[in-house]
Amino acid sequence: MEDRLQPAFAEVLRRNPGEVEFHQAVREVFESLGPVLRKNPQYAEAAVLERICEPERQIIFRVPWVDDTGRVRINRGFRVEYNSALGPFKGGLRFHPSVYLGIVKFLGFEQIFKNALTGLPIGGGKGGSDFDPRGRSDGEVMRFCQSFMTELYRHIGEYTDVPAGDIGVGAREIGYLFGQYKRITNRYESGVLTGKGLTWGGSLVRKEATGYGSVLFAQSMLGTVGESLDGRRVSISGSGNVAIYAAEKAQQLGGRVVTFSDSSGYVVDEAGVDLSLLKEIKEVERGRVSDYIARRPGARLVKDGSIWDVPTDVALPCATQNELTEADAKQLVANGVRAVAEGANMPSTPEAVALLREAGVLFGPGKAANAGGVATSALEMQQNASRDSWSFGHTEDRLAEIMVSIHDNCLATADEYDVPGDYVVGANVRGFTQVADAMIALGVV
Ligand code: NDP
Ligand code: 2IT
Predict the structure, then answer these.
(1) How far apart are CA 320 and CA 240, in angstroms?
(2) For ligand 2, what atom is nearest to the CA of residue 374?
(3) Domain spanning 3-188, CATH architecture
(4) Any idea where the Glutamate/phenylalanine/leucine/valine/L-tryptophan dehydrogenase C-terminal domain is (predicted)?
(5) pLDDT-based confidence at 192, cuts 50/70/90?
(6) Is 376 left (phi over 0), alpha (psi -120 to 50) or beta?
(7) Quick check: do 3-188 and 208-369 share a fold?
(8) Which strand ranges, in their side-by-side order, compose the sheet holding 256-262?
(9) pLDDT digits (tens, 9 = 90+) for 266-323
């Protein structure tokens, strides 16, 4: 990181002690920004860096609920409204026991730049809870969501802050959250949440969008060196929303998806993943990857070791932060990986990213590669605002156009800063300058 950025970074460390994921996310962006600040003295004059690191508003609240045995449970809820220079705060809610302020802030910070890259009018925010939906009944999840929304409703709105899903939050949870919002406010305000069900205001392709978009991004990167996914081995981590639809699009483009995982281990299926079986297990039964092995001859479950040890051409980390380490990156390079596109948020450690970039692997950082999800959320908001509903084909075409333009804008920005092919610099600089210019135009607010 250049010297001129050090004081602002030191302030981030001082103000946000112990929030290591947040520090990591800020450092990663700052490391790209030296030349931008040299070229644009107005950013320093307006203290854009210092302002952009401080969320506009942070809400932390108690979420009391009653489990199926009658016991009172307490969780902590968060919403960090990070930056609204480009539009209403926009970003998902994560329900996972590891959630604390540092996770929500890292995700919210990334979201600012990701959302700017989409070219659509959305600011950045993130929220969630340390609630663990795993093993909870539908009734428990509903009561939790109702309690969560009973506080959250006063902070959100279609012009203010528009949450969506993330880890542990899918259409079921969005339904319970929307139902409670509607009940409290007595308004059918569809645009207040995205990722809604298709029969009540949701958009076609939103469920598929993050995974599809990540694969389209990988395809665009491969296209720059005259290659494609066709006939390639593809490794995917995770088996949730992003992983499943990354696998679907990779298969549609001729790739052979050979892995997926959850927190209990990873599966290798050399014949190519049976997606209808995986969807049945994960989306309908809410089962574990071991259920797949039991029903799929030839597939094997590996409980220790790393999914990135499996030789592959294209790696798509789609589970969680810091899941792809330096040792994993080394192994991927040794096995001849061509491209890595991050479906998850910050899944590669900084050391892994450095190693992949140095090795000349095509590397698509999350804020560019996984922006298709939030972009399609913005398309859902457009449909809600115009009381319209678009076809699958039209919406998917819009998503594809957006992913190509994100890819091309990252490359053009990398060229402008004399680092051709560097998608990390391209994404960080392009996202930052979009937001910084808007912040300056809006004055000191
Ligand atoms: P899901 O909850 O649908 O799936 C998460 C998957 O990752 C599960 O297979 C889960 O396994 C695994 N996982 C989660 N945490 C861990 C962990 N600590 N260790 C090992 N495995 C873990 O979430 P999504 O698919 O929606 O999200 C995946 C990633 O993509 C996240 O980083 C999210 O922020 C990012 N993302 C999501 C978008 C979206 O639209 N949903 C948009 C852009 C990014 P298990 O069930 O065992 O926990
Ligand atoms: O990380 C992300 O971009 C998301 N979880 C999706 C956010 C959204 O508002 O659709």
Answers:
(1) 10
(2) 10
(3) 3-Layer(aba) Sandwich (3.40)
(4) 203-443
(5) very high
(6) alpha
(7) yes
(8) 300-302, 265-268, 256-262, 233-237, 314-317, 339-341, 362-364
(9) 999 999 999 999 999 999 999 999 999 999 999 999 999 999 999 999 999 999 999 9
Q: Residue range 208-229: average pLDDT?
A: 98
Global confidence as pTM: 0.98
Q: Would you list the domain boundaries of the chain?
A: 3-188, 208-369
Among 210, 376, 380, name the best residue to mutate to test ligand 2's pocket (greatest count of ligand atoms within 8 A of Cβ). 210
Span 360-392, pLDDT tens digits: 999 999 999 999 999 999 999 999 999 999 999
Residues labelled catalytic: 126
Whole-angstrom Cα distance, residue 269 to residue 276? Answer: 14
Closest CA to 289 of 307, 313, 271: 307
Measured in angstroms, how far is the CA atom of residue 45 from the centroid of ligand 1?
39
Contact 75, 63 (CB under 8 A): yes
Which residues have a Cβ under 8 Å from the Cβ of 92 and sit 6 or more positions away? 107, 126, 127, 128, 163, 164, 165, 166, 169, 195, 374
User: Taking the CB of residue 159, how many other CB atoms lie within 10 A of it?
Assistant: 13
| Burial category of 45 from C-beta neighbours within 10 Å (exposed 0-12, middle 13-18, buried 19 and up) | exposed
Q: What's the rounded mean pLDDT across residues 130-159?
A: 98
> Which of 1.10.10.60, 1.10.10.920, 2.70.50.60, 3.40.50.720 is the CATH number of 208-369?
3.40.50.720
**In 3-state terms, what secondary structure has residue 161?**
strand
What mean pLDDT value characterizes the chain? 98
Q: Which residue puts its alpha carbon closest to atom 28 of ligand 1?
A: 319
- Tell me the per-residue pLDDT of 389-419, one tens digit each, with 9 for 90 and over: 999 999 999 999 999 999 999 999 999 999 9
Q: Would you say the CB of residue 163 lies under 6 angstroms from ligand 1?
A: no
Tell me how far apart the alpha carbons of residues 365 and 131 are, in angstroms, rounded to a whole number.
28
